[in-house]
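REQUEST ID: PR-0412
SUBMITTED BY: lab tech R.K.
PRIORITY: routine
TASK: structure prediction, single protein chain
INPUT:
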Amino acid sequence: MEAEEIYMNREVKMQAAAFKEKRGAPANKGAGDPNYENIVLNFRNRDQPKSAHSSPKNQVPSRSRPLSKSSQVPHWLHTALLSLYILLTLVCIILLALILVKNLETSQELLHLKRELSNVSLLVQQCQEEQKLSREDILKNIIAVKKNISMVQDKVQHMNDNLKDLSKAVSNITTNVKKIFGELEKQANKPTP
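STATUS: complete
OUTPUT:
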């Protein structure tokens, strides 16, 4: 295993040297520097199994490392978050219960209002029917009164006609009585033989 690592390190160093030669930099500048070797070693893929076939050299492998104790979330934070979630759930349940109770009260009030409105509508219908009946009665009474008035007018006219006839008869009687008195006076003024 170590021989393969050394071989890989040499290959990477050689590639780095060739790259620097292309750019005009000296190839062995960081060859003895331990930081330089650490940088090269950091780019090696540690997750893949070591085999005769290696991955492509220009690919940068991902590095996975376990989280340290300092970067892990404390247990009390999990407990606090869980408590907050439970509290939030309880608050939501209480709010839903309050909404349901308020909804029930509102629906009962609406039912009561509906009953009152139906009672009012029934009263209005009864009043309209009574008003219609009273109108019909008034119209019947008006028609009856008109008939009575026309009958009275006819009777009055008939009586007027009778009175005219009577006054003619009285005037005839008066003229006849006057004639009779006139003749009686004439006979009374005549000497008796």
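NOTES: The chain is about 75% helix and 0% strand.
REVIEWED BY: pending
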